[in-house]
Specification:
single chain; Neuraminidase; 5-stranded antiparallel beta sheet; 1% helix; globular
Length: 286
C-alpha cells in the first residue's frame, strides 16, 4: 500500500435532509461475490430516516429520524418489527453509534440554541443519563465518528477544510490526521484501524489509519462520481454506493465488481451503508 506522511495535511450543513428510507437485507459472501436477498423497507414513511447503525449483539438498528422539525434517534428491532424512540430532547441527534462497551449510544448533538455540534453519549438503559464527550467550542463542530475500542475513536470535524481527528480518551490526545475527508468513517473489521475517504488532487482515496503505527495506507480509489459512502463486511470486503449501484472491492484481488440489487428495492440513489455479519442496511432516496 502507498504511504502518506501524516504530517502533511491533504486538503452548509453536514446532514442532508432530503427524504430517505432504510432498507434491511440479508447478505452473503461466497468467494468474494456478494448476494443480497429479502429486502424490506423498515422505515416506510415520508421524511428523513437515515444513518443506520447495528447493535453489535442485539437485533436492533439505531437510526436518525426527523419528525416534528428535529432529529431524534430511534431504534428498530428487526426480530419483532417494533420501532422505539430513544432520544427526545430539545436538540437534534444524529449519527447514532453503539460504543465498544455496548453500554452507550454516542451521537452528534446539534444544539438548537447556537448550532454547535457536540459528541454526546447516552446510557442505553436510561437515555436520560447522558455525558458530553467533546464540545464544539473546544474541538470544533463534529459531524461523524467511529470507535475501535473504549479509548480510541476518530471524528469528522467541520471546517475549511474538514478534518479527521484521532482521539485517545485515556491520554486526552487529539490529533489531526488528515484533511479534505469524506463523511464515511469505519473501524476496519478485525483490525485496530479506521477507514476514511480523502480528496487528493483530482482523486478520492479510500484510506486506512493505524493509531499504533501512526500511518495512513491507501486501500483503493473511490469512484469520483459517488458520494463516497462505504462499509466493510466482517470478512474484509469493502462496499461502496455509487448512484443507483452498489459495488464491492476485494482487498486481496484488488478488483471492484458490481453487486446485483434484489428485486423489490427502489430504483433510486443509494447512500449510507451499514453491515453486521449477514445483514446490511442501505439508505435509498425516497
Amino acid at each position: 500500500m502507498k504511504k502518506i506522511l501524516l504530517g502533511l495535511l491533504i486538503s452548509s450543513s453536514i446532514y442532508a435532509q432530503n427524504g430517505t428510507e432504510i432498507y434491511l437485507m440479508d447478505l452473503s459472501n461466497v468467494s468474494g461475490k456478494i448476494t443480497l436477498k429479502n429486502p424490506r423497507n423498515i422505515t416506510e414513511r415520508i421524511g428523513y430516516d437515515n444513518q443506520p447503525f447495528f447493535h453489535p449483539t442485539k437485533p436492533i438498528i439505531y437510526y436518525s429520524s426527523i419528525r416534528n422539525g428535529q432529529s431524534d434517534i430511534w431504534a428498530y428491532d428487526y426480530k419483532n418489527g417494533e420501532h422505539k424512540q430513544v432520544t427526545n430532547t430539545v436538540d437534534s441527534e444524529y449519527s447514532p453509534t453503539v460504543t465498544p462497551d455496548k453500554k452507550y449510544l454516542s451521537c452528534i448533538v446539534q444544539r438548537k440554541s447556537n448550532g454547535d455540534q457536540d459528541l454526546v453519549k447516552y446510557n442505553l438503559e436510561n437515555p436520560a443519563d447522558s455525558q458530553i464527550l467533546f464540545e464544539s467550542q473546544k474541538v470544533g463542530k463534529i459531524g461523524y465518528q467511529a470507535w475501535t475500542n473504549d479509548d480510541e475513536l476518530v471524528t469528522f470535524v467541520l471546517g475549511e477544510p474538514q478534518t479527521l481527528h484521532y482521539h485517545n480518551l485515556t491520554t486526552k490526545k487529539d490529533t489531526i490526521i488528515a484533511s479534505k475527508i469524506g463523511r464515511s468513517l469505519h473501524q476496519i473489521p478485525n483490525k485496530r484501524a479506521f477507514s476514511f475517504v480523502q480528496e487528493v488532487g483530482n482523486k478520492w482515496l479510500i484510506c486506512a489509519y493505524s493509531p499504533m503505527k501512526n500511518t495512513i495506507d491507501v486501500i483503493t480509489e473511490s469512484s469520483p462520481e459517488s458520494e463516497h459512502y462505504n462499509a466493510w463486511t466482517h470478512d474484509g470486503l469493502l462496499l461502496e454506493s455509487r448512484g443507483m449501484e452498489l459495488h464491492s472491492y476485494d482487498t486481496k484481488s484488488k478488483k471492484w465488481r458490481i453487486v446485483e440489487l434484489p428485486v423489490g428495492v427502489p430504483q433510486k440513489k443509494l447512500s449510507r451503508l451499514m453491515i453486521k455479519s449477514n445483514k446490511i442496511a442501505i439508505v435509498f432516496d425516497e
